Each structure stands twice: as C-alpha cells, then as structure tokens.
Amino acid sequence: MSVAAVHTALADAAARFAFSQTPRLDAELLLAYALGIERNALLLDLQREVPAAFWDLVARRERHEPVAYITGSRGFWTIDLEVGPGALVPRADSETVLVAAGAHFAGRAPSTVLDLGTGPGTLLLAALDEWPAAGLGVDWSAAALGYARRNAAKLGMAKRAHFVQGDWAAAVDGRFDLILANPPYIGTDEWLPDEVRTHEPAAALFAGGDGLDDYRQLATQLPRLIAPGGCAAVEIGHTQAEAVSALFAAAGLRTSVHRDLGGRDRCLLATP
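^ thats the sequence. predicted structure below, dont judge the formating
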C-alpha cells in the first residue's frame, strides 16, 4: 500500500465524519486501532496496508458512536483509561480540575483524595498518578465502577484507589485533602451532539432543568468533607460559575474560578 493510498483512506474517512469537531484525528485514531499500533507510529510510517476492519470502524463512527467507545480507551492527563458504554468519555477540558488542584497544592501534595462521581476513575486515577496519595472514588453506576476498578488495576493503583457505589458523599465519612468532582451539569432541554446524547449515560450528563441539581446536593456535603488546608475542585459548565459559586457561598465555602485552555470558565476551587 502506498503512502498516497493511506492518505486517501484517511481523507475519505474524515469526509464521512463532518459532524465531528476532529474528523481527521478520528480517522487517524481508528486506522491506528485497526492496525494495532499507536497513532504516532502510524503518522511516522504511512507505508501501510489499510485493513478491511478499518472501514467497519468508519461505519460505526458514521453512526456517531464515540471514538473512545470504538477503540475502548481514551487518554487523559498522564494516563490511558478503558472506557465504553455506561461510562462518561473523559474530556480534555476536565484536566482544568487537576490544574486548579495543582495550583492549590503548589509545593506540597495531598495525601487523601475523594472523587465524587468518579465514572471510569478519570479524575481520581489522574490525581494518584500526579501525587503519591490514597484515594476513594464514589459513583452510583455499577458499570462505571467496573471500568474504574479495571483501570486502577491496569495502572498499578489497586492498592491506593478504592471504589464504592453510592449517592455522592451521602455515605462517606471523614475529611479529605483534595475532593474532585465532575458532576452532571447539562439542562434536560439543552442541545447535545448525537454522539453524546444517544451513547453516553444520561445520568452522567443531565442535572434537571437548569443543570444545577447535583451542585445543590454537593453544596450541602462538601463543607464537612474538606480537611484543613484542603480544597474541592469541581468542574462546571462554562456559563455556570456565578450560579454554582452562589450555591457554594451559601454553604460557607469560598470559591475561585479557573478557566480551560479555551478561556472558558471550567472549574470552581472551593475552600472552607
């Protein structure tokens, strides 16, 4: 297979992904997956045969199935995570939560971490890769926790990361240096791309008519959970900083806003 043929295959696939914000990247990831190699290896050597399986993957992506579900993994922060149906796909914007936490703990490290709504372990395992801490992840979804436990084992963190099924922090006792959370924050009537609305778990996306239901619950729980000198780093929708800050302030928490790489409000850093 010539380099030109590979370029043509990638271009043809990308053209079918016009609905995606990253059509060429999607095509490259799927071809690398079909070949059983990393994307970087593909880009360094395009002199390859395009397997028939690639076009089966393209057909799945044309039906708006998330690339991470097709390949079964997604890179996040410094780790790779297994993901699939029943788990929220990790997004780069969520890394803002870790950046904000890192700024708070500059020059020191948290020793205990709590991740509320952990999903496939995204924020917790990234934090444990950053700091030599121990952590607890909580999620209501048994399916999501299955991914989280497998991810912890694959990353060699099974002894430091523990997971329990629960409703936010209702059954959690004690205080934690760092609390992480990426709660649902989409209003039930808000528009979402088909690949999100029809494939990812609705309970990890939607939070009532105004998208604030879960922040209301978190506001009642966070004050008793944050250890002295600690903080909670909570992801927000980019229009929600004022509303969520008010909820947290009413619970006695001070907040500061942190923006993602696109300059949008993305995280509230809360302290007692």
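The mean pLDDT is 97.
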